[in-house]
What does this fold into?
Amino acid sequence: MSMKKYDVIIIGSGLSAIWTAINLDKKLKVLVLTKSKVWGCNSFYAQGGVTVAKNEQDVQSHIKDTMIAGSYHNDKKMVELLSKKSLTVIDDIESLGFRFDRDENGNILFTREGAHSKNRIVHAGGDATGREIHKFVFSKDKSFFIDESVVFDLLIEDDKCFGVSVSQNNKKMNIYANSVVIASGGVGGLYKFDTNANTISGDMQGLCTLKDIRLKDMEMTQFHPTVYVQMKTAQKLLLSESLRGEGAKVVDQNFKRFLFDYNERGDLASRDIVSRAIYDYKQKGNKVFLDFSDWNEEFFAKRFPTIYYKLKDLGYKIPGELVPIGPAFHYMMGGIEVDSSSKIKNFKNLYAVGEASCTGVQGANRLASNSLLECFVFGKICAEDINKNITNINKKFIINDEILEKENDKLYKNQLREIMWQNVGIIRNERNLLKALDFVEKTIPKVGRITKFRFLTAKEIITAALNRKESLGAHYRKD
Ligand code: SIN
It folds into this structure.
C-alpha cells in the first residue's frame, strides 16, 4: 500500500472545490481529485450567473425571494448567512483579477431570472458565467491535482476521516489527509433528461449512505423548465432562465403565452412552477417553444453567445425561428447534511460543499443563480474552518476489495435513468415511486461498487419522495 498524505483532499473540481482550495492557507498541501477532467463539473456549464444582494438594503429582499422560491423549507439562518456573505463575493473574485460583464460606462450589469423580485444576477462572457469563473479560479489555484481518479471509499473511524481510496487506471490506492472535503456535485446522471455534466451521478452521496452519513432533503430535485432536450448527448442543452429575464417568451404552437394561465408571474414564476406548467401543457398534446423574435440578432449573439452559436449549429434560424423546449433534471437541493461551517454532522474533519451538500439554503426549490453563490460562500467558510482547526492525524487502512465495476453496469445505469425520469420525476405518485424502489433494490446486488453508489443515492431520493406525502416546492405528489 503506497502511503501518500496531504493536509487537505478535495473530491471534485467544480467551483465549490476550487474556491475552497483557493481560500485554504497557502502553507497547506492540498490535493484536488476529480473523476474525469477538471471541467467535468456543473459549475462549468452554469449560464445565468451569480446572485448577489446588491447592497445592505437588498439583503432582506434576497432572503425573501430565496425563501419564497424554496417554499419556506429553507434554513432561515443559513439563508441569512448566504445573503449577507454575498455582499463581498464580487470583490472577492474581482480582487484576484476577474471581471463580471459591464456596460460601456464600466458599471456591472445585473440580470434577472425566475422568482427574483429585481435584477441582481451578475454574469460573465454573456451566458458563459460558469465557464469563465471556473477557468479563472482554476488558473489561480496552486493545489496538486489528479484527474481520472474515482474515489471509492472514505477512510473513516469514529468522528474522523483519514483520507480516501481511489481507483486510477484500474489501480487502487489510499491517499491520506488531515481534512477531507466532498465537493463532487449533484445527481444529474440518475435522470434520462438532465442538464448536468456527464460525470455528475451522485456517487459520493451514495458512498456517504454506506458510511452512515445523513443525507437531507433528497426528494427536492429541481427540474429546469427550458431545456433543448432533443440533443443526442446525455447532457441536454440548457437554455438559461436569463433568456426570459431579458425578454424571451415561452409560447405554444399558436404563440399563446400559456404560462400566465398557470401563474400570474408567467415566464418569471419560480422554476418548479414553470417546469410543471410546461410538463402538464405538453401532456395535454401541445407543443412548447422559446420565442426570441422580439430580439435582433446582434443583441442575441452578444448577450447570449453560447446559446446563440449552439442553436445556430443545431440549424435554428434564430432569433426568428421557435426553438422547442421541455423540462429536464437540473439541480439537487438536498445532499450531505452540513452545519454552518460546511462540516458534516458528527465529524471533526469531514466537510461537504456545493451541490453535494445540503446547507439548507436552497429549501424545496432553489432560487435561480443561488447555486454559484452557495459555492463561493460556503467554499470560503469551509476553507476558513479548516484553516482554524486542522490537526495532524494518521492511521493506515486496508483497501476495500469489493469489485468496482461489473459487466452490465452500463445497462443498469441506463435503465435507472429511464426509471427515475418516468417514476421519480416532475410529477410523482406512490405507485410509481414504489415501482422505482423495487427496481433499485433488486438491482443493487447486481452492480459493481461504483455503480452501487448512484443506486444508493437514487434509493435515498425515492424513499424521501415516498415519505413526503404532500407536495412541497419541487417535490410534487399527485396521488
Ligand atoms: C439558468 O441559467 O437558467 C440556470 C442558472 C441556475 O441554475 O441557477
User: Anything to note?
Assistant: The CA atoms of residues 34 and 147 lie 5 Å apart. The mean pLDDT is 97.
